[in-house]
Structure formats: structure tokens, C-alpha cells
Design goal:
5-stranded mixed beta sheet; alpha/beta; 9 helices; 252 residues; Ubiquitin-like (UB roll); single chain
């Protein structure tokens, strides 16, 4: 059975050079589904958000027929496509993350920017896959085999090796610049932090901190206390640098 395929943007990385960014004929068995064709091409379902069959949006279980024209798109970073996607009830645009054990600094950076990011140094691959699948979190990993695991619908393989370049890559890939809410989440445990009065945390503060600062925040989960000291100034400079689109793109 011959069908006409066209893959877009980074999905072309999975194709032979002669098939990239052009329409090409693909042979598959009669009655093959979209999911079957993706497996034949080596394209992870987790990187696909929209499939058009002869111009109409279809799901991964849709059977294909001879002569079908199939267009396959990755996640739409800047467009809300919830009204046209057939496979998902929510677009990949609704982003929360889980990071694998090698991406601890990336997880901290994402939390610093306000993004809900689960991380633990002892997660195994099965746990990561389960969290991604059950909580609809984007699984971030540098392990190709993990992000391409069958059944995962939210994944991204991080290419950069340095943490600041990694967070710049994620910001650019998912177009998160306008969605960042810096310093609203605990960098240690990921919970949203809450404002507290100085008196509530006075017993835990050093003398110089009490003398200089008036505004404090506390994590309700791990009890970590935050204030806008010199460490905050350094992080704020980093945040401003990361959230400048041009700066982040150059970090790639």
C-alpha cells in the first residue's frame, strides 16, 4: 500500500536525507494505522501533535488507505491547536515537566523560572515513563531510547550538554518566554512558595538577614525560606538573560 507522506520541522531528523522536508511515497501494509507508519519511520508518537489525513485531523489509531496524503507535525510552540487536533484532548502546549536523573541542574533552572518540574536523583526509567504518561508531563532526557519509548506522548530529547544551554533550549523549543513566573516555586522540592511575615520565620533567620530584609517567602512543603539577598540578585540577572529570546537562541 503506497501513501504520500510529508513530515515537518524537527521530525525530519528521523528520515533519510532524501525524504527530509519533501513529500515522499511510503510503502506500508494494507490497513496500516498512523501509529504503524510512525513506527516504520522511527518517529516517536511523543513528538507528534497533529496528523492530517487528506487534510483532516486524525488520531494515531486511524487506518490508512492507498493514495492517502498524510502530513505529520510536531508540537506547535506558539499556536493553540486544541480545536483541530484529533488525538489529544489537550495540546502539548499545556506544559509540566519531569526530568531524568542526569538533568538535575536543568530541573532547578526550570523551577527557578516558575515551571512545574519533577526531579529526583533516584528515578529509574520505568518511573519516569509512568510519571510522564499518568501526569501528562513532558519527559526531558538526553537518552534517545527513553524519550522514544512506545506509549509516551510527551517527550523531548535534550541536545545541549551544559545546564544553562539546556534551559535555553527548552525555553526556545516550547516557546516559554512569556509563560515564565520566576521565583514563584521552590527550587528544592518544586512546590509553589508563599509569602510570610518576618515574625513567622524570625527564629530561623541570621542577625544580618533580619536587619537588612523585610520580605520573605516559605515553601509549605520543605519549609525552605527565601528572601531577596545577594543570591537573588545573581539569579535575577540570570533569569533576565535567559528570558531574552535572542540570548537564549544564541545559547543554542
Amino acid at each position: 500500500m503506497e501513501i504520500l507522506l510529508r513530515l515537518y520541522e524537527e521530525l525530519n531528523e528521523h528520515l533519510a536525507p532524501e525524504h527530509r522536508k519533501v513529500a515522499f511515497t511510503h510503502d506500508s501494509r494494507e490497513g496500516a494505522t498512523v501509529a504503524d507508519v510512525l513506527r516504520e519511520l522511527g518517529v516517536p508518537q511523543g513528538q507528534v501533535e497533529l496528523v492530517l489525513r487528506n487534510g483532516a485531523s486524525v488520531g494515531f489509531s486511524q487506518s490508512l488507505a492507498v493514495g492517502d496524503r498524510v502530513s505529520i507535525y510536531p508540537v506547535f510552540e506558539s499556536l493553540d491547536v486544541r480545536d483541530v487536533i484529533a488525538e489529544r484532548t489537550h495540546p502539548l502546549r499545556c506544559l509540566r515537566f519531569v526530568a531524568d536523573t542526569h538533568l538535575g541542574k536543568l530541573a532547578r533552572y526550570l523551577r527557578m523560572l516558575g515551571f512545574d518540574t519533577l526531579y529526583r536523583c533516584d528515578y529509574d526509567d520505568a518511573e519516569l515513563a509512568t510519571i510522564s504518561r499518568e501526569q501528562h508531563r513532558v519527559l526531558l532526557s538526553r537518552d534517545r531510547a527513553l524519550v522514544e519509548e512506545r506509549g509516551l506522548t510527551h517527550t523531548w530529547r535534550v541536545r545541549a550538554t551544559r545546564p544553562r544551554e539546556q534551559v535555553a533550549e527548552v525555553l526556545q523549543r516550547f516557546d516559554l518566554y512569556a509563560e515564565a513566573q520566576p521565583f514563584t516555586r521552590c527550587m528544592e522540592c518544586n512546590a509553589p512558595i508563599e509569602p510570610v511575615t518576618k515574625n513567622e520565620v524570625l527564629a530561623r533567620l541570621q542577625h544580618d538577614t533580619v536587619r537588612v530584609h523585610e520580605r520573605f517567602w516559605r515553601c509549605p512543603r520543605c519549609e525552605r525560606i527565601y528572601w531577596q539577598g545577594s543570591h537573588y540578585q545573581r539569579m535575577d540577572h540570570l533569569v533576565r538573560s535567559l528570558l531574552r529570546r535572542e540570548s537564549s537562541e544564541n545559547a543554542e
